Amino acid sequence: MSTSTRPVIKCESVYKIFGDNAAKILEKSGGKVETAALLDAGCVIGVNNASFEVHKGEILVVMGLSGSGKSTLLRCISRLIDTTAGAIFIDGEDLLAMNDRELIDIRRNKMGMVFQNFALLPHKTVLENIALPLQVKGMSTRDSMDRAIDMVSLVELTGRENDFPRQLSGGQQQRVGIARSLAVEPDIWFLDEPFSALDPLIRREMQDEFLRLQSVLGKTILFVTHDFDEALRLADRIAIMKDGVIEQIDTPANIVFSPATEYVARFTREVPRERVLSCQTIMGKYDASAEMSNITVSADAIIETVAEPVLTEPKPVAVTDAEGRILGVLDSRIMIDALFSETQSVAVTN
Ligand SMILES: Nc1ncnc2c1ncn2[C@@H]1O[C@H](COP(=O)(O)OP(=O)(O)OP(=O)(O)O)[C@@H](O)[C@H]1O
Fold first, then answer.
1. What number is the ipTM of this complex?
2. 20 CB less than 6 Å from ligand 1?
3. In a domain? residue 212
4. Where is the ABC transporter domain (predicted)?
5. How many distinct structural domains can be found in the chain?
6. Quick check: CB of 52 below 6 Å from ligand 1?
7. Is the distance from the beta carbon of residue 64 to the nearest atom of ligand 1 less than 6 Å?
8. Is 71 in the pocket of ligand 1 (CB under 6 A)?
């Protein structure tokens, strides 16, 4: 993830107010949002003063309980609904200033969406469902079908091309939804509770599938969920929402170890540290003269994913960066200290 470049998504004081009187009240106040007056007038505040950026290749998970404003925020940024106040920039372009044609163009070519209910057309086959957005863009039937076949393979559904949605399991239907949204090669990927309708085992499988796809595709992602565990598994950063307000936006480790508010802390109390700490945050010093294990682990791997091999390995395991350079070591003592020590002594930097 790069944070030095221009953000792909930038929100500045974004508000979404629902209610017949909202426009009138805003007009009276000269566009200034006075939440108390709006609430008194019976308006509902969907998103309340959201400001943040999402960078290229980053997964930002928007997490909150039902009614906290997650979907409304996502819909403002994808312009499925109009924003009441504030500014949204996509690759530096003012989204709210775009005309209908520009909007259709950006939504068709730059943005992909996946919804909880899969939103597949029941009378079309898997291939036809995936090819449809390409045909809407003007691609020939033949080319769109060829591309749809590639997409089916990407989401590992080869052999089911001619099935109808009703012949597929929920997880398979969502794979089709994912393939369809990726077919147009969007830069920005919006996923609104994509796995919430799936049972827990399939859900976990789809989360792994999502991470696998992202490791290949490197999209810029806004992922909405009400499940804190899902947020921890998937996010580069998590935005926690309550009553339309983003209470905290930070890495999973910082959310868990430095919750900004009491509300955020309520989600984090029970989270085991191996779920959020990376190898880099607990590793020991590398001694070039020591005999090392043949296995290595990546510096940004979460401890949970490497605990077993490290704990069963008699020799120290090298922790390496993306170029394979050794940054430090892990061994069973370091691992046990990190997992079971009572005090939190590690520096949270990832
Ligand atoms: N079209 C609408 N008209 C009026 N109020 C709305 C509308 N859409 C959303 N709201 C309100 O805005 C607030 C945020 O809703 P939103 O759907 O964004 O929440 P959410 O966090 O996505 O919830 P869920 O997880 O249940 O989908 C809620 O109070 C909701 O009732």
1. 0.97
2. no
3. yes
4. 9-268
5. 2
6. no
7. yes
8. yes
pLDDT of 348 over the 70 cut: no
164 and 302, same domain (yes or no): no
Look at residue 341 in the predicted model and tell me its pLDDT.
66
The pLDDT of residue 4: 54
Predicted local confidence at residue 272, as pLDDT: 80
Shared domain for 258 and 303, answered yes or no, is: no
- In this model, does residue 350 exceed pLDDT 70? no
Q: Does residue 150 carry a pLDDT above 90?
A: yes
337-341 mean pLDDT: 77
What does the H/E/C string look like for the chain?
A: CCCCCCCCEEEEEEEEEECCCHHHHHHHCCCCCCHHHHHHCCCEEEEEEEEEEECCCCEEEEEECCCCCHHHHHHHHCCCCCCCEEEEEECCEEHHHCCHHHHHHHHHHCEEEEECCCCCCCCCCHHHHHHHHHHHCCCCHHHHHHHHHHHHHHCCCCCCCCCCHHHCCHHHHHHHHHHHHHHCCCCEEEEECCCCCCCHHHHHHHHHHHHHHHHHHCCEEEEEECCHHHHHHHCCEEEEEECCEEEEEECHHHHHHCCCCHHHHHHHCCCCHHHCCEHHHHCECCCCCCCCCCCEEECCCEHHHHHHHHHCCCCCEEEECCCCCEEEEECHHHHHHHHHCCCCCCCCCC
Last residue of a domain, one of 214, 242, 272: 272
- Residue with CA nearest ligand 1 atom 30: 67
- Are residues 159 and 216 located together in one domain of the fold? yes
For residues 268 and 290, state if they share a domain: no
pLDDT for 116 equals 86
Indicate the residue among 231, 256, 272 that finishes a domain.
Answer: 272
Choice from 18, 192, 246 to test ligand 1 binding pocket (greatest atom count within 8 A of CB): 18
For residue 88, being part of any structural domain is answered with: no
Range of the domain at 335: 274-340
CA-nearest residue for atom 18, ligand 1, is 69
